[in-house]
């Protein structure tokens, strides 16, 4: 592949297929209910308020050169225009659009009448695409927040989950499929009781659910629900999100790549502990979307996916280290005084009253 990407200074630099890259045809795929195939690993594009749009766009272009074909985007990340320039360069360099899998998401402040469709059209324009492979409802609440806020920040108009309102959003998602702008629609940051309501009322069922998944937070109940109802689980923070914002850091958080089980397996295999986390994720059946702007990191992730699998014994050992350690807690989306972040996640198995 030969392509080019334009820097913030207007300089055009060539981009060629990397000799040390991975053949994209070797990357495993998951089959959605439609029969479409999604690459079993993707590159996340959320810079956690730490990286510029240009840095992330360069990572996308370079990741494509080493074999990535799946990119997970969102309007709220504030970098889709820059990522779109990279995607255009990738396609102009010889990668057919049909080989790419591009996901985007509608943000919480665009849940009103007509706003979901407008948001999708803007993402398409920014990403320089005619259609999205997957479009997700980013969070099940219309509660927003500014960039760089701390955990104590609250949307003054915040509210809890109201199923009627969510389904109004979902009807717009279904319309996008009918318009041909989106090939699949899905959910994100959901719980079993919320998903059960959506599955009951949706004309077009969710094709995927994006959720936090890593060895210390395996979400077995939600994982089983998602897979048993024909959805592909897409796992964010698959390495334990070392670059997550400060608002999502709490004293009790654990570090997956420092777990003795992960470290021992990595040492035995001669790989970084992050590679073990990614291998586990893919073998378990989820689609990890790790974020990195560092070439050695995202290249080693892809190499891990196509190398020899973990043993059954290793997979069983990792299954035993789940600590129910949610990292992306979502404090900023709470809607009542006196609530804790657990209220966002329906801790008692029932939707928390709005």
Task: Kindly describe this structure.
By secondary structure, the protein is α/β, with parallel strands linked by helices. It has a single domain, classed as TIM Barrel. 33% of the residues lie in helices and 13% in strands. It is built from ten helices and twelve strands. The strands form three sheets. An eight-stranded parallel β-sheet has the order 5-6-7-8-9-10-11-12. Strand 6 (70-72), helix 2 and strand 7 (101-106) form a beta-alpha-beta unit. The chain is globular, with a radius of gyration of 19 Å.
Distance between the termini: 51 Å
Beta-strand content bin:
5-15%
Topology order in helix (H) and strand (E) letters: EEEEEHEHEHEHEHEHEHHEHH
Radius of gyration: 19 Å
Number of domains: 1
Biggest beta sheet attributes: 8 strands, parallel
Q: What is the CATH architecture assignment?
A: Alpha-Beta Barrel
| Quaternary structure type | single chain
Low-pLDDT runs of 5+ residues are 7-12
Number of alpha- plus pi-helical segments: 10
- In total, the number of strands is 12
Portion of residues within helices = 25-40%
Q: Which class do the helix and strand fractions yield?
A: alpha/beta
CATH class: Alpha Beta
Shape: globular
- Overall mean pLDDT score? 93
Features:
single chain; 354 residues; alpha/beta; TIM Barrel; 8-stranded parallel sheet; two-stranded antiparallel sheet; globular
């Amino acid at each position: 592949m030969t392509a080019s990407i334009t820097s913030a200074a207007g300089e055009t630099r060539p981009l060629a297929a990397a000799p040390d890259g991975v053949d994209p045809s070797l990357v495993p795929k998951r089959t959605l209910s439609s029969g479409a195939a999604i690459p079993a690993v993707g590159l996340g594009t959320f810079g956690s308020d730490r990286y510029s749009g240009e840095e992330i766009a360069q990572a996308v272009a370079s990741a494509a050169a080493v074999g990535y074909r799946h990119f997970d985007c969102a309007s709220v990340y504030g970098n889709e225009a820059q990522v779109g320039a990279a995607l255009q360069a990738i396609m102009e360099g010889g990668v057919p659009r049909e080989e790419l899998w591009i996901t985007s998401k509608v943000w919480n402040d665009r849940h009103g009448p007509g706003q979901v469709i407008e948001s999708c059209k803007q993402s398409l324009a920014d990403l320089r695409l005619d259609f999205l492979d997957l479009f997700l409802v980013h969070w099940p609440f219309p509660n927003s927040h500014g960039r760089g806020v701390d955990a104590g920040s609250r949307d003054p108009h915040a509210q809890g989950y109201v199923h009627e309102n969510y389904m109004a959003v979902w009807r717009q998602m279904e319309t996008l499929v009918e318009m041909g702008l989106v090939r699949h629609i899905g959910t994100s940051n959901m719980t079993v009781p919320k998903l059960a309501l959506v599955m009951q009322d949706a004309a077009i069922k969710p094709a995927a659910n994006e959720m936090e998944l890593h060895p210390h937070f395996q979400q077995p109940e939600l994982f089983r629900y998602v897979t048993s109802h024909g959805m592909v689980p897409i796992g964010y923070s698959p390495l334990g999100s070392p670059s997550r914002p400060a608002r999502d850091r709490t004293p009790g958080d654990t570090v997956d790549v420092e777990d003795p089980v992960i470290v021992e397996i990595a040492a035995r295999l001669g790989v970084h502990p992050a590679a073990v986390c990614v291998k586990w994720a893919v073998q378990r059946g989820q689609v990890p979307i790790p974020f990195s702007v560092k070439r050695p990191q995202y290249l080693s992730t892809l190499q891990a996916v196509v190398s020899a699998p973990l043993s059954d014994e290793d997979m069983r050992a990792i299954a035993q280290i789940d600590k129910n350690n949610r990292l992306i807690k979502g404090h900023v989306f709470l809607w009542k005084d006196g609530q804790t972040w657990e209220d966002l996640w329906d801790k008692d198995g029932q939707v928390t009253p709005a």
